[in-house]
Amino acid sequence: MDALNQTRVTQFVFLGLTDNWVLEILFFMAFSAMYVLTLWGNILIIVTIVFTPRLSTLMYFFLSNLSFIDICHSSVTVPKMLEGLLFDRKTISFDNCIAQLFFLHLFACAEIFLLTIMAYDRYVAICAPLHYPNVMNMRVCVQFVFVLWLAGTVHSLVQTFLTICLPYCGPNVIDSYFCDVPPVIKLACTDTCLTGMLIVSNSGTISLFCFLALVASYTIILVSLRKQSAEGCRKALSTCLAHFVVVALFFGPCIFIYTQPDTSFSSDKLVSVFYTVVTPLLNPFIYTLRNEEVKSAMKHLRQRRVFS
């Protein structure tokens, strides 16, 4: 019987991270704490930047946007994962699966473009400081943010369209804890070779080329730092190092997963956990614990009882 004439799948079943109930309880406790810390840390950064006039600079404007994206990115997958760790039946409707897939790629792509823009901002600030006010002003940065959300939406729509155009008539078991394009299209009742290549050419190319652009910009920055004073070099390296750590933590897993057209997704669960759960948690700690200006602003706001 033709696949298109078979009963369409109405829900998917997740295999989750493990079938050991002891590990599920431990994972639930650990990931719940990490999710709460992610929300608290990133909200704290946004509130600090909004309520501190001296942090109304372009760097902190981008940082507040990064915190917002991290909150959204982790909220797409973590709550559903925590629910799956508590219940034996780990299911999601077809429509909710597609929605999760859409927003996952929207926020992930937005973060990729934002990190690239932040690298360009550091490049202009360090390598062409005299031209910085003209090249990077608030109007330009708002336009950058608008473009990154537009590009993320287009990318996500492409991924979603390629996924829903395939027929799904069974099986309906996803070897993961969330809906993403690679594990979902494996369940399609047709040959997905062409679709897989299109997906890799879309997601993989965006991740890889943005990462290469970031590496190139930081290479130029490092070369230019030789001409600066020791104090200026130290401050620039401190800022760039924090940014590059975030870039490596986020881009590494994305490139690993989306440049493999026929990967075994079960072997990639650890990598997926890293970029959906761990990275959004680490971002606020990487930026705030090493930034005296942000820590000073938080202390001042606490004294004003803003956080109470």
UniProtKB/TrEMBL annotation:
Membrane topology of this protein: Multi-pass membrane protein
Entry similarity comment: Belongs to the G-protein coupled receptor 1 family.
Key words, A-Z: Cell membrane, G-protein coupled receptor, Membrane, Olfaction, Receptor, Sensory transduction, Transducer, Transmembrane, Transmembrane helix
Source organism: Balaenoptera musculus (Blue whale)
Protein name stated in the entry: Olfactory receptor
Residue spans crossing the bilayer: 25-51, 98-120, 140-158, 206-225, 237-258, 270-289
Pfam families: 7tm_4
G-protein coupled receptors family 1 profile domain span: 41-287
The UniProt record lists the keyword Transmembrane: yes
GO cellular component: plasma membrane
Gene this chain is encoded by: LOC118891279
InterPro entries in alphabetical order: GPCR_Rhodpsn, GPCR_Rhodpsn_7TM, Olfact_rcpt, Olfactory_Receptors
Localization terms from the record: Cell membrane
KW Transmembrane (keyword) present: yes
Function (record text): Putative odorant or sperm cell receptor.
Main localization (coarse): membrane
Any one GO molecular-function label of the UniProt entry: copper ion binding
